[in-house]
Specification:
The protein has 540 residues and is of the alpha/beta class. The protein folds into two domains: 3-230 and 500-529, P-loop containing nucleotide triphosphate hydrolases (Rossmann fold), CATH 3.40.50; 248-487, Rossmann fold, CATH 3.40.50.880. The protein contains 15 helices and 28 strands. The strands form seven sheets. Strands 2-9-1-10-11-12 form a six-stranded parallel sheet, with helices on both faces. A six-stranded mixed sheet has the order 15-13-16-18-28-27. A hairpin with a 2-residue loop joins strand 27 and strand 28 (457-460). Helix 1 (16-29) runs parallel beside helix 2, helix 1 (16-29) packs across helix 14 (494-510) and helix 6 (171-181) packs parallel to helix 7 (201-215). The protein is globular, with a radius of gyration of 24 Å. The two termini are 38 Å apart.
Length: 540
């Protein structure tokens, strides 16, 4: 069975997810076979595993940091908000149903069984599992209901490191209060980490000594505030990330993503952040929409509600006016569904409305159903001549150049990778991409058409489309040609940039945290592999 270490936080957004990712990379680098685990995640950013299961995007990122393939077991329960009071429950990668809070609490025994079984399977395959908690373990009203914090620590016999965000204020009160509210479970908390510190460490040290004296637990690290480190964020995007990277003193291309209330998988657009000469903005403002070089309507967990919100507040009108002025528009997943003529919901999957008019910008209609499509895909742009299948994979036609739109009139053809996460089927003028759906656990492959294009508007169900470097480069260059701008030059390797960002974060942790303390909690001694700069304890 694996050894376990658990990272809990004094609240949401204190840095648990990225800390788990960084520790996974540190442990991987010293030769430990490590995996992340989060019993229950609540997020609208998700990822599809090779098994065809849906898990939290943060856990997929942590698996990437650990150097392993993401699997369903690292996040057995995913909750996706569908309204202010309800959510879709994903159990072991598949949709279980929609529930409100009361229903979910009644479901907790079955949920806990899924959690323990997933962890136990994972524990058979790895040496160490780094577990992420959720929110705060000191939510005393949820103490008997929770299945993600101290209950997991008890099941796995995991020592707990408690992290707090000093940038938000009140970090010492949060540490002290958490210990005080946890009763017997407080014994599981072995140490504290202070995250996002700005200023002079000498001013902070008296507080560190006092919290150690009052709780009997060491502060094993203070992590400075570094702004945007280029890591995947679970629920929000750092403000620093939106600073445009100018290229050759040319005005940047402005990409505006419509800021939906139930936006999902906004990580689809992270690759644009690393491109020179790109300004990425999430907005609902008329001024931003009308001045954009590209508008994107992203995925949504409640397509109908988000569409009606855009309509009610005049934002749909701003988008349509911009399109009429020649601004390109893309819809991804739920955004793609919004661009059609109608959205039908005969089973009231998303709302009480059984039919809603779409924006009418694409000649398609979508019918929502109870079955969710979740799979990884390979894809290519469809042209008059389609390649065949070779060895169960797409073969690309060297002449695959879509001449029906300047925006997709590429000089090269690409084998694209991505994934689908959607409920519903779209019909009509469909055929922008040809998808090869990769079916898990057998050798079957399903070929389907996806996406639609009409003049300067197109949409697709493919998530992760812009992770494909060549496709992203050609698409951005098509926007530049439209403005009479030169090509950006060298193609950005997004995967490599992301990997280097994880390495930088791991190096920060190795120089900010007492890694030897963590290894001792795991019963391991690899301290000779570290040069720890203990900027906290040596001077206390």
């Amino acid at each position: 069975m694996a050894k376990a270490l658990m990272i809990q936080g004094t609240g949401s957004g204190v840095g648990k997810s990225v800390l788990v990712a960084g520790l996974c990379r540190v442990l991987r680098d010293i030769g430990i076979k490590v995996a992340p685990f989060k019993a229950q995640n609540m997020a609208l950013n998700s990822f599809i595993t090779k098994e065809g299961g849906e898990i939290g995007r943060a856990q997929a990122f942590q698996a990437e940091a650990a150097g392993i393939e993401p699997c369903n077991d690292i996040n057995p329960i995913l909750l996706k908000a569908t309204s202010e009071s309800g959510c879709q429950v994903i159990l072991n990668g598949k949709v279980y149903g929609n529930m409100n809070a009361v229903d979910y609490y009644a479901f907790k025994d079955e949920a806990w069984k899924a959690v323990t079984e997933a962890y136990d399977r994972l524990s058979q395959r790895y040496d160490v599992i780094v577990i992420e908690g959720a929110g705060s373990p000191a939510e005393i009203n949820l103490e008997k209901e929770e299945i993600v914090n101290m209950r997991v620590a008890r099941h796995t016999n995991a020592p707990v490191i408690l992290v707090g965000d000093i940038d938000k204020g009140g970090v010492f009160a949060s540490f002290y209060g958490t210990i005080g509210l946890l009763d017997n479970d407080a014994e599981r908390i072995k140490a504290f980490i202070v995250n996002k510190f700005r200023g002079d460490i000498n001013i902070l040290r008296p507080g560190l000594r006092m919290i150690e004296d009052r709780t009997g637990r060491p502060v094993i690290g203070v992590i400075n505030y570094y702004g945007d480190l280029g890591l995947h964020e679970e629920d929000a995007i750092p403000a620093e990330r939106f600073t445009p990277k100018h290229h050759n003193d040319v005005e940047p291309l402005k990409i505006v993503v419509i800021g939906l209330r139930y936006i999902s998988n906004f990580t689809d657009f992270d690759p644009f952040i690393y491109e020179p000469g790109i300004e990425l903005k999430y907005s609902l403002r008329k001024e931003d929409i009308s001045s954009a070089d590209l508008i994107i309507i992203p995925g949504s967990k409640n397509t109908v509600d988000d569409l009606l919100f855009l309509r009610k507040h005049g934002i749909e009108k701003y988008v349509i006016e911009a399109v009429k002025q020649g601004v390109p528009l893309i819809g991804i997943c739920g955004g793609y569904q919004m661009l059609g003529k109608r959205i039908l919901d005969p089973h009231c999957v998303e709302s009480a409305l059984k039919e809603v008019d779409g924006m009418g910008l694409l000649d398609i209609s979508t019918t929502l159903d109870r079955t969710k499509t979740t799979c990884q895909v390979e894809a290519e742009l469809i042209t008059e001549k389609l390649g065949g299948l070779e060895d169960g994979r797409l073969s690309l036609n060297k002449n695959s150049i879509n001449s029906t739109s300047q925006l997709l009139n590429f000089k090269s053809s690409f084998k694209l990778r991505g994934y689908e996460i959607h409920m519903g089927k779209t019909t009509g003028d469909v055929g922008l991409f040809r998808l090869l759906r990769i079916t898990p656990h057998d050798s079957r492959f399903t070929v389907v058409k996806d996406g639609s294009l009409k003049e300067n508007v197109w949409g697709t169900y493919i998530h992760g489309l812009f992770d494909n470097d060549g496709f992203r480069r050609e698409f951005l260059d098509s926007l530049r040609r439209k403005k009479g701008m030169p090509s950006a030059g060298e193609t950005v390797n997004y995967s490599e940039l992301r990997n280097r960002a994880i390495d930088r974060w791991a190096d920060i942790l190795k120089n900010s945290i007492d890694i030897c303390f963590i290894l001792r909690q795991l019963g391991m001694e690899h301290c000779n592999q570290f040069l720890i700069r203990d900027n906290v304890r040596d001077s206390q």
